Amino acid sequence: xxxxxQTALVTGGNKGIGRxxxxxxxxxxxxxxxxxxxxxxxxxxxxxxxxxxxxAFAISVDVRSEEDxxxxxxxxxxxxxxxxxxxxxxxxxxxxxxxxxxxxxxxKTMDTNLKGVFLCTxxxxxxxxxxxxxxxxxxxxxxxxxxxxEFSVYCGSKFAVNGMTEAIASELEGExxxxxxxxxxxxxxxxxxxxxxxxxxxxxxxAQKVLELASSDSRVPSGKIIEISAPPVPQL
Length: 236
What we know:
Layout: E1 7-11, H1 16-27, E2 31-36, H2 39-51, E3 57-60, H3 66-80, E4 85-88, H4 103-128, E5 135-139, H5 152-171, E6 177-183, H6 189-192, H7 203-214, E7 225-228
């Protein structure tokens, strides 16, 4: 499953699910680009990636900004000469009833969760198209498959990500494979800021699925929306 020499961009790659995705891809030899806003958290993740032998670097980016995203992709090509895998992972959520949600919270949710996917995908496509293993993997949510009370705006953004995934997969058929992963509750800082329980899924479970899809020998059809609601059963 070697990804040696390939370049992977992971948005929101400095913590939680994104961080685990970076480690999983780096373990298979990929060079990692972390795109996130918090530089101190990126630095900690970056140090560990470099310790694994990855030619990794981090760029401070707001995925809601077209100027930032264009600069991000341009920098990757300048420094790496290629882009093979895009993981759209950056996301936010507010647990609020619809009538209690502010327009600012709505805009931040939609701009991060959906507009960020649009911008990163739009500007990455011309370069990923050149790869022999071009993959775009969107981290959606169980909330993109089923409406969750007090998460109406979040669910709206994730349903849209899944629809966009299917549409882009059709547009890029035969050129780039596009997927959407829909995790249930995952043990992350964001989850713990909302709930008091500890969910069964860990970031590593999602990272493992990303790794499977990123593999050059993956036979999962492009456009697939993949739900992960429980940890995988160990193979005996």
